[in-house]
Amino acid sequence: ALERMIRVESEVGRLRRVLVHEPGPEIDRMVPAMMEELLFDDILHGEGARQEHARFRRVLQLLGVEVIEARRLLEETLEQQEARTWLLNLIEDAVPVNMHGRLRAADAPTLTQYLVEGVRFEPDHKGIEAHELYELPPLPNWCFQRDPQIVIGSDVLFASMATPARYREALLSRTIFRFLEKEAEREPEA
Question: For 63, which DSSP code?
């Protein structure tokens, strides 16, 4: 079960497994108008962030730490119809009505892309504010995987994010952990 996968007994002990998210296009899609609500001091340079993250992952791997990609887990989780329905029902009020059908019809990789990278209005749509640029704003903070959840023992504590712009991060994490556990319970013991 999931308890075998997740267990943290020390903040300073040996790290064996870590959940990460490589900064993707959501970093590149951040605009100055989003900085305050997302608690950024500056716009990140996407390619530089990806290079730093790759070095970080490599160091972890050299130290024998298993690196698990949150985006891959989210895609796997959203392959389960029950997980998709649960998440889409939870975020329905936070997503424009005109996107509901598109999100429900998307396959798991596309739905993950929409939820993490955001959905930009058509290029002829003008504006500088996030709500003028994006039907669904990107989640540039999702690369900070310690923010939406904390593992204590074999339990996972989900954060109540400081701003509405970060609400979706915790829901994506809740979806992964809630349905990953169900999937682990279905798998036969090795």
Answer: T
